[in-house]
Amino acid sequence: MREQLLAYLLNDLDPAERKSVEDAIAADPKLAEELEHLRECLAGSEQEAEPAVTPPTKLASRTCSFVEHAVERSKSFCKSSPSAASLSESHDGFSARSKWSYADLIIGACILLAIGALLLPAIGESRETARQLKCQNNLLRLGAALTQYNERFQRGLPQIKPDQNAGFFVVELYEKGILTREELAELVVCPATQLADKVASGHIRIYIPNREEYLRSDGAAGNLLRKLMAGDYAYNLGYRTPSGSIHQIRFEGSSHLPLLSDAPSLAIAGYQSANHGGCGQNVIFQDLSCRYIRCIQAHSQQDHWYLNDDGKPAAGCRSKDIVLAPSEATPLLEVGER
Predict the structure, then answer these.
(1) Does the keyword Membrane apply (predicted)?
(2) Which of 26, 40, 156, 320 has the most neighbouring CB atoms within 10 Å?
(3) pTM for the full model?
């Protein structure tokens, strides 16, 4: 039912479905409470994104002053130029028109340069803010799908086995009919990344395999499939028990336990995500709240969400040791990586 409530908030239902959800909400106070909780989560993800950049103070007065000085400089130049003076003596009508056309050209160019220098940075930062919000929306829909998986099958979150990669969760969501191949292929791409540009240009295609296709894939093609199947995002590898088996973290609906995030990159200092210029990463939690976090560190400052307690990008060392890993990562490191 949570998926229907989320679709209701996102206006993604037809009139009949919307009426059915509204009737259910009116009849069940618990559903009404759940609807308000989801509404707060959606509002929170928008509020926590960095605000759009406002224009510099006194922009209008500074621009007018700049133009006024440009006009004065242009007049001085036209009066002091010998060639302009000689032309005015012999061709009065033409030179007057020519002189003011040249001045207007200078003034117009100065205005454009001034406005461009002042506004282009703001436009660029506003574009990045929009991409962050789209990325958060992608994570929210993927998080809602994982929540539905837990509610429908009562088995917690999709398990990543030792011989599987972190991106295998998309196979589970596809095979269980929670999201289609096309929906998953779109949702796993963050709009702020190079991968998004390559997908848009047709150079790369995201393909979501079923279990049989996944098991058949090997070699270079299999490696590429595993690298791309979860796109730009990182999923929880689970943790290693004392006996050596891998278990997934428990789903508690917590606002502090992450489900997914922007994937980390070795190219960024501190093993952070490169998806937003290395400045931070979006993280969605089990309660479906989404936050933009500059340093991927838990509140205790002891648990790095991209590394386990041993400082490795592998399964956690205990049940509370969170490790979010990129699509191609596996719970157990290869011998050469240890």
Answers:
(1) yes
(2) 156
(3) 0.64
